Amino acid sequence: MTFARMTVRIAAVVALAVAMVGLNPAISGACACGAFVANDKLRAQQETALVELSGRTESITLSVQARSTATQAAFLMPVPARARFEVADGALFAELDRISRPEVKVRRVTAEGDGAGGGPQAGGGATVVDHIEIGPYEVAQLAGTDTTAVTKWLADNDFTLPTALGGALKPYLEEGWLVVAVRLAPTSGSLSAGLPPMRLAFETDAPVYPMRLSATAEDQQPLRLYVLADHRVDISNPAPEGSTPDLTFAGEVKPDPQYPTLSAALTGTRFLTRYDGDFAPAQITDDIRITRSATDEPHRAVVTVTEYVRSPWPTLAVPLFILVVALVMAAVAIVRRRQTSRS
């Protein structure tokens, strides 16, 4: 493909993404694996995702909790190949949390004084490959190069996309990725009540969790990432100059009546790995690469909670002191009486 044709292709697909996700006026915000465009300010409070690896098939189940009063929004997520989309069961992440939650140890510290105060602070025409409606989502999968078709799409939908977000898509398109554009129509009236998790599945030889769009965000990007695979996995740091994601849990999981939603996706014993991270947008330069770990050693993080216990000493000190003084005074009086009687 010539440079000119590649340039046209990139511009066209970016514009087609614009057509699917723009809102007028548009306010953008990123989450870890993609980006939102909404009709009001939107801040991601927690992004939780499950990556399932089975042969060449990778699926990403995503749940984003956002703080917003927006009533209209769209979500963009780049994928390396054509994806299948479906709505997932929100109970899945509650089960994963129960399985992987850290062990909590309580350290009791006796605080002097009254115990007040706290402790330490913690090449062809542009096309819409797929266009479907599932639950509260309208989904389009975008690919192509024809600017005429893209222009028509823009006119038909009257959408816009912030310039920075459009530019952030360019590296993905240069690598031949597609863009999944999801229009969100929350039945609750605003996004603050949340939306059901969405699940995308695609074929790839290099498991990845896309993160580069998050460089356009204004706020920290919190992410809890689960990976369900045949073995324990390592992940790369998408923000090399920032803190490394924490390994919270690694261990085998198998069908269990306590976890019916997860069990429905299991055909046998698999390995679950969980990482928790918080990324500064300015430091995000890459996607998360997922690779097999050198060991399948189980792991569970330990969180030590410091509990400050009020010391009983200050309360007892005054009466004890009075008692001691009284005993001393009584002893002195007795001695003086004896001396007086002898004289």
TrEMBL record:
Domain of life: Bacteria
UniProt-listed InterPro entries: DUF2330
Alphabetical UniProt keywords: Membrane, Signal, Transmembrane, Transmembrane helix
Keyword Transmembrane (UniProt): yes
Signal sequence segment: 1-30
Pfam families per UniProt: DUF2330
Membrane spanning stretches: 316-335
The keyword S-adenosyl-L-methionine appears for this protein: no
Entry protein name: DUF2330 domain-containing protein
